[in-house]
Structure formats: C-alpha cells, structure tokens
Design brief:
The chain is 80% helix and 0% strand. With 320 residues, the protein is an all-alpha fold.
Amino acid sequence: MSRKLKSYGLFIVLLILLSILAYLLKNLKTDNAKVSSSNSLSALHDAQYYNELGNSLMRKEDFSGSVDAFNKSIELSKNTKYFYVAYTGRAHTKFNMNDCDGTIEDAKMALSGDSKIWDMYTLAGICEFEKRNFKDSIQYLTTAISLIDKNNKDSWRNYAYRAASEISINDIENAKKDLYIALKLNNNSFFIYECLYRLYMNNNIKDYKIAAEYFEKRMQYPEGIDYTFFEDGSLIYMGLYDLEKQGGNPVKMEQYRKLALKNANKAYVLKPSAETAYSLCLTKASLEEKDAMQTCREALTRAGQEKNDKIYKDAYELVH
C-alpha cells in the first residue's frame, strides 16, 4: 500500500512539474512574440525614417544619397506587408537619374505590393517610350489613365506620352485625341507642343500651317531644344514655301524661304556634321541658293571624314 501511495505521489509531482513546464513554455512563446512584434515595429519605424529621408534627398536632387536611403528602407521592410513603399520612392529617384531600366524594375516591385499605384504605371510607360518599346508604353499609360481621375491635371503626361508612342506606331487619330486632352490638362508643356508639331508633319496629315503654329509655341520653351528641333523647323518652312510657290503670296514665300534657311543653318551651327551639312545642302538646293553646291561639297568632305557612306554617296551625286 505504501508503494502505491509513493508511486501515486510521484505521479502527482510529475504532473505538477509538467504543468509548470507548459506554463513556462507558453510564457516564453508569448515573450518571444512580444519581442518579435517589438522588433518588427522598430524595423518599420526605421524603414519609415529612411523612406522619408530618401524622399527628402530626392527633392534636394541628391539622387545618390536618396537611393542609399531607399535601399535601407527596402532592407528593413522586406519581410513586412509594407515592403513595396520604398520601391515607389526609389523608382522616382531612378527616373530622375534617367535610369529607365532601374525605374521599370522598381515600379514593377511597387506594383507587386499595390497594383493601384497609378504613377508607377506612368513612370514605367514613359521609360518604355524612351526605350522605344511603344506598345509596352501604351499599355502602361493606358492603365495609369484608367486609375487616375480624368480631371487630375497630373495625368497630362499619361496622355502626352501615350500620344508620342502612338505617333511612333503611326496611330495618328488616337494620338491627336490624346494630345488635345493633354493640352486641355496642361497648356504649358513644351513636350505637348513638340508632339503636336510633329503630329502635323506626319505624312498622313502634312498640315504645315498648323505644324508651324505649334513649332513656334514649342520655341518659347528653351528646355530640350537641340539641332533636330531646327531641322524640323527647316522642313516645316520648306513645306510652307512649296505651298506658296504654287501660286500663293510672294511676300509669304520669301518669309518662309528665309525661315527655312535660318533653321537649317541653326541646326548646322549646333551640330556641325555630315548629317546637318547635307540637310543644309538640300535646303539650299531646293531654294536654288547660289552657294548650295559649296555647302554640298562641304557635306561631301565631312561624310568622307566621318566615313558616312550613305551621305557621301548622296552628296557626291549632287555635286557631280
């Protein structure tokens, strides 16, 4: 009987010990969860700090510092549901650095966390346009347009860049619609005016009068103007010159002649090359200028020096 009592007593002690052990394990798990939760909150707090720092540095145009800050934010938030937030900021910074591949990559990461961030589609769409992936550009920008309020003035870029891609694939009617929506949202963008004058230079329209109007509006914004702009101007005024030549106003004809020459010369001054010399040569030859052949010989010489076989062949045929 004493043995049974002793065994029973040991059993009771064992049960008590097991209960105590279970209690301790439960508390240990609770404490670990609290520590884990506390660590997660701390990491999120630090991630938010670096995210705000990245945005601040981006506004100050310290893009390298901005990327470093966003990198830290991404590392700290990578195991949370907010992992995508810093990717949106880093995408904007890389966009400002003209890093289109990096912008698209970060935009995709941001959208994997929240597929409704319209400006990520905008950045990706503009970058695909810059990379000449016009169909991808149109797809991204169309999605951005579907997500943003149609009266939101920030959406002008979506319409303008979609139009630029549409012009590039010769979808002229849709491009025209998009450009006039963009213009209604923002009438102070050189890019919109640039797209508009190029639209009206297109072979499917060729309305040089309207092209000239938008070309002159584009000229009011010095940003981004290079030799190609003046080559376009030369072509526009040559087109108007040819129209007036067919029985039009001789005063306007002379005006367009001078403007065509002026723009072709400006292009050559900005970029002295076989390409611009040959464009100037063709302009002068079309206008029957006395020094046309001299300019064509200069184009021929430059083509030889630059080993530009196509221009050399074309200029040679003109000179000889």
